[in-house]
Design goal:
The chain is an alpha/beta fold. The protein folds into two domains: about 160 residues, Response regulator (Rossmann fold); about 60 residues, Orthogonal Bundle (Arc Repressor Mutant, subunit A). About 40% of the residues lie in helices and about 15% in strands. The protein has an eight-stranded mixed β-sheet with strand order 1-8-7-6-5-4-2-3, with helices on both faces. Strand 4, helix 3 and strand 5 form a beta-alpha-beta unit. The longest helix is centred in the C-terminal third of the chain and has 15 residues. The chain is elongated. The N terminus is likely disordered.
């Protein structure tokens, strides 16, 4: 079960599709993303939940065309630097307005605040989110209890959001996540230093931060957490 941390939220307007009289099995989602494997993965994830139909779209144009025909309940779309807010406004102009979920890709510098400031109902960082936290974020947003974020570092979130995360590594910085991944691969401190282009002392400092944040004091313990992260 995901950990849901509530933060002060502003009143959000209710949407027509939240009516309890609407059968859950008829819910329709559009996943608009240029990466096929992301569309496919989210499609399977949502189909296993309460969505009777999940449609993938490789572009904003395709998503808008499909939305004009099927009137989706929720649109999950790639929120990229520069174009994200504009795409969000296009989807927000649909009638009836769907719940809007911004998907921030791995390596992006975009924070949750940029997505929420653009009027989105939810923001998900794919690099830090898991299947369960993605589903929980969509549920909370569709229930009108947002704005909601998942998968972001604490410094990327802001104050006006419901935070959903179900993995203990959510408190780690990106560099610490890289460290944990390499520890899980069985690399020594010296090997990690070579891979990341850091000094051994810097790697030791990062590892100390990992141990402190995760409350794990042994290398074997860190490896177990790292392997669990890789599997999820």
């Amino acid at each position: 079960m995901s950990l849901v941390v509530s933060r002060p939220t502003q009143t959000r307007r209710s949407f027509a599709f939240t009516s309890p009289s609407r059968p859950r099995q008829l819910l329709h989602a559009i996943v608009a993303h240029p990466v096929a494997v992301i569309r496919a993965g989210l499609g399977v994830l949502l189909s296993d939940e309460a969505f009777g139909q999940v449609t993938g779209a490789p572009s904003t144009f395709d998503a808008l065309r499909i939305a004009g025909i099927h009137h989706p309940d929720v649109v999950l779309f790639d929120f990229s630097a520069g174009g994200g807010p504009a795409v969000g406004r296009l989807f927000a102009g649909l009638w009836p307005r769907p719940v809007l979920v911004g998907l921030v890709g791995p390596g992006s510098t975009i924070g949750a605040r940029e997505c929420l400031d653009a009027g989105l109902d939810a923001a998900i960082a794919l690099e830090g989110a898991t299947g369960e936290s993605i589903l929980d974020a969509v549920r909370v947003a569709m229930d009108g209890r947002g704005p909601v974020v998942s998968g972001f570092r604490p410094d990327q979130i802001g104050d006006q959001a419901v935070v959903i995360d179900d993995h203990q590594t959510s408190v780690l910085t990106r560099r610490e996540r890289e460290m944990l991944h390499l520890i899980g691969e069985g690399l020594s401190n010296r090997e990690i230093a070579e891979v990341l282009g850091l000094s051994v002392k810097t790697v030791e400092a990062h590892r100390g931060n990992l141990s402190r944040k995760l409350n794990i004091r042994t290398r074997s313990g860190l490896m177990r957490v790292a392997m669990g992260t890789l599997v999820s």
